[in-house]
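Appendix B, Record 12. Input sequence as logged:
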Amino acid sequence: MKKNGDIIVIEDDADDREILIEAFEQVMAENKYSNRLVVLEDSATVIDYLKDITSDPFLLMSDINMPKVDGFTLRDRIYNDPQLKDRCIPYIFLTTSGNNEQYIQKAYQMSVQGYFSKPVTFDGYKKLITEILGYWKLCKTP
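Logged structural output:
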């Protein structure tokens, strides 16, 4: 995992994408992070994107409830793909289904590295993103 690699956000909702982009841009500027933000709205394109890039992504943040390929299926496909499995890409869920106990249990059975509820305020998004990025910037990985 490259600490300065791409931050990949998979979000199908246009309003949520707009908020996430603004929050990430502010947090990265405030902390002088040089990561590139890549926002994908179509979850069906993620595997091809991950296989086509030459640098390792820093982390992947995904919604769960998406058309075509839901977040659980996407996580499973990445984890079981021989080209992607060993790349050590932290996979984090950011969802409106934050208090769904079945989803939480299923996510951690799939070995995700985080499960978070979408905040209700812009400041909440910034705080959450700051904490997630700070943690992964400090975390040691192979």
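Strands lie at 7-10, 37-40, 59-62, 91-95, 114-117.
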